[in-house]
Amino acid sequence: MRTVKEISALTGISVRTLHYYDEIGLLKPTDKSEAGYRLYDDKALETLQQILFFREFDIPLKEIKAVMGNPALEKNQILQMQRKMLVAKKERMERLIASIDRILKGDNDMDFAVFSKTEVEEMFDTMYEHMPDNMRNLAVRDFGSVEEWKKHYIEAVSSEEMQKGYAKVVEWYGGKEQFLSVANHPVSKEVAESYNKRMEAILQKLAAKKNCDVNSFEVKQLVGEYGFVMKQFSQIKSEEGFMLAQAHYYRNDKVKTMIDEKYGEGASGFFARAIETFYENK
Fold it and tell me: DSSP assignment, residue 36?
């Protein structure tokens, strides 16, 4: 058993802070001496270590307490969570150091990457896990394998152009944490399937209008409906930037081929023009 002073000397955490952790129920002492002094065993010290890991990210004590007290989370799960957070922070620090080194050398290309490689991989894994089976199977077929699909996704999202785009996406969600929260806690497969069917029906109707003027009422009505469904599904505050990014996505050569095969020659370009016209005029 260790006293508060010994724990403080070992960890660098002040005695006052340890007392406060006890008061709010975040880190209770294992026992108390006959004189009433707080005592901590090795298990309590491990718990304190986990708390300090979370504090590295300035996570509020209330949230740390909720995570630590969640009976559904085992010790290893919490450690895995913290490891991912630390790896992401390490990658971010390495990028910043590399940027400073380039500036010192007189080569300032300015790295404004929004998401680390670890965060991008987590985004793909979550997307893959919750994606409706028909959409997942279609993507795997088009890319040849899950590994190739993931590699393409990571390369695309990690590119400078996409990172700049994601800086805007983060704004639509009100911040990076809000975006990652939505990305890592998506709707159920059943709900996603329902939204997918609605969007598929809209795109089928829109494809049938590809010979129409993009300024026509029927085309604008379909694009407006498409944007509304995307806003609901994506849980964003405003869909305008999201939809313009979708239009850009439709102009990607690989995507263009896939869309045209499914909806008819020229459908991808028509979707892009219709979306751009609707939202730029709006």
Answer: -
